[in-house]
């Protein structure tokens, strides 16, 4: 059977600030993110398998990405954890309910590396994460490709929850 790639598009709205950055993005600002997730595999040939003919159920991919990415970040303020983090988070969460702290500068590039680890760890047996594309704006995006990166997935260690 042929190797097939499936892609599903997701979107979420989020704000972030790039602390220490020397440009306007150091200020809190928002984006309408568009995330394209591509997985690779061979369609099941098992007769009687409800997924016969599929690499992966699009609904399963949607559930994984929603649980790991969109539900966590949609309409969130994404900030890097810092020494001021607990006090800043307490101040912000008194007024706003969805503040997501991350262990990295929340750039499009770093978010993709985090997303790759999270998604790959949850994919069904026989399905690999092939690529991710994250649009910050209509004309600006970053991409992650499996071929350019060390393997990620279930056997590569746990992903720290934020």
Structure description:
This protein is an alpha/beta fold and 162 residues long. It has three helices and six strands; from the N terminus they run ββαβαβαββ. Strands 4-3-1-2-5-6 form a six-stranded mixed sheet, with helices on both faces. A hairpin with a 5-residue loop joins strand 5 and strand 6 (141-145). The chain starts with a strand and ends in a 17-residue tail after the last strand. The model is unreliable at 155-162 (pLDDT under 50).
Produce a short descriptive summary.
The chain has 162 residues and is an alpha/beta fold. 25% of the residues lie in helices and 30% in strands. It has helices at residues 58-73, 85-95, 108-120; strands at 4-16, 29-41, 76-80, 99-102, 127-135, 141-145.
Secondary-structure blueprint:
Blueprint: E1 4-16, E2 29-41, H1 58-73, E3 76-80, H2 85-95, E4 99-102, H3 108-120, E5 127-135, E6 141-145
Parallel strand pairs: 1-3, 3-4
Antiparallel strand pairs: 1-2, 2-5, 5-6
User: Got a strand count?
Assistant: 6
Q: How does the major sheet shape up?
A: 6 strands, mixed
Low-confidence stretches: 155-162
* Number of helical stretches of at least 4 residues: 3
Estimate the helix proportion, in percent. Answer: 10-25%
- Helix-strand makeup class: alpha/beta
Instruction: Provide the spatial order of strands within the biggest beta sheet.
Output: 4-3-1-2-5-6
- The whole-angstrom Rg is 17 Å
Order of helices and strands: EEHEHEHEE
Shape: elongated
Arithmetic mean pLDDT = 90
End-to-end gap: 40 Å
Percent of residues in beta strands? Answer: 25-35%
């Amino acid at each position: 059977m042929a190797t097939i790639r499936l892609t599903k598009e997701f979107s979420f709205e989020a704000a972030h600030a790039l602390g220490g950055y020397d440009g306007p993005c150091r200020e809190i600002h928002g984006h309408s993110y568009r995330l394209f997730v591509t997985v690779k595999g061979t369609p099941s040939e098992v007769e009687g398998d409800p997924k016969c003919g599929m690499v992966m159920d699009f609904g399963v991919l949607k559930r994984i990405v929603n649980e790991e990415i969109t539900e966590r970040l949609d309409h969130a303020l994404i900030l890097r954890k810092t020494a001021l983090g607990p006090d800043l988070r307490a101040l912000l969460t008194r007024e706003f309910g969805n503040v997501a702290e991350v262990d990295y500068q929340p750039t499009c590039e770093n978010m993709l590396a985090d997303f790759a680890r999270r998604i790959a760890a949850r994919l069904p047996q026989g399905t690999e994460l092939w690529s991710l594309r994250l649009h910050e704006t209509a004309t600006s995006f970053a991409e992650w490709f499996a071929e350019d990166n060390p393997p990620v997935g279930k056997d590569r260690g746990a992903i720290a929850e934020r």
